[in-house]
Write a structure and sequence with these properties.
Residues 50-147 form the Methyltransferase type domain. By secondary structure, the protein is α/β, with parallel strands linked by helices. Helices cover 29% and strands 30% of the residues.
Length: 249
């Protein structure tokens, strides 16, 4: 008998799923090239690529395109986000042949002994210190020698403002969709508005708890698990297993 799906209880991103891809273009205009750079040289023969917190599949698709031939394990706890991810796969049959989706967290996934790479975008700020330590250990054990784990944090050089800040806007048919961010001590709130002219016809506020942890702290944590950090931006870094000469021989 199949196990019941308990992930909906923790579905932080479900209310945002409807709007996510419509308004993600400005963020991914920056994230896409960074991710492609981080995955340069990855060898798919080393194993599948793990996408932790795959969301609607923007990172899954970008990672798969950056590493042609790699099988991808996409892990996502939000049912709403997985609907969008499944739709993305349905629209790209070649991609669907390469991507396996797991409902839940990385600890629910059946992982192989080796991974050619891992991606965790929009993830670590949701984790406590013990959860991050477990993630670093998993990556250190599973990543092939020299393989990258790609991680981002909140950019502390441009954090969410206390006053509402419009992040993106897009016209769809007769309506205009907007995303707004407002910072708080323990994260921020994303607010999505749908306007008909000057009239707001729909509004959804999505509180997102997120720690203010920076790359420097992650580098120290990951280093204790045998991972070396290489920052590519103030909020974006690559972590690779530290291997010795004996391990290569």
């Amino acid at each position: 008998m199949p196990l019941p799906d308990t992930t909906a209880v923790h579905d932080l991103y479900g209310p945002a799923a409807e709007f996510y891809d419509l308004l993600a273009a400005p963020a991914w205009a920056r994230l896409g090239p960074l991710l492609h750079r981080a995955l340069d040289g990855v060898d798919p023969a080393d194993g599948p690529l793990l996408d932790i917190g795959a969301g609607t599949g923007l990172s899954t698709e970008a990672a798969a395109d950056a590493v042609p031939g790699a099988q991808v394990l996409a892990v996502e706890p939000s049912a709403g986000m997985r609907i969008a991810l499944s739709t993305r796969l349905a629209c790209r049959s070649a991609l669907a042949e390469r991507v396996t989706v797991t409902a839940g967290t990385v600890h629910d996934a059946r992982l192989p002994g080796r991974l050619c790479a891992a991606v965790a975008l929009g993830v670590v700020g949701h984790l406590g210190s013990a959860e991050r330590a477990a993630l670093w250990r998993l990556l250190s054990e599973r990543l092939a020698p020299g393989a990258p784990a790609v991680v981002d944090v909140l950019d502390r050089t441009a954090p969410p403002t206390r006053a509402p800040l419009r992040l993106a806007t897009r016209r769809v048919g007769d309506l205009t969709y907007e995303s707004w961010s407002e910072g708080a001590d323990d994260g921020w709130t994303l607010t999505y508005r749908v306007r008909d002219g000057e009239t707001v016809v729909r509004e959804h506020a999505v509180p997102l708890p997120w720690s203010g942890i920076g790359i420097d702290v992650l580098a120290e944590e990951a280093g204790a698990a045998g991972l070396l950090c290489t920052p590519l931006a103030p909020d974006f870094a690559v972590f690779r297993p530290v291997t010795t000469r004996e391990e290569h021989s």
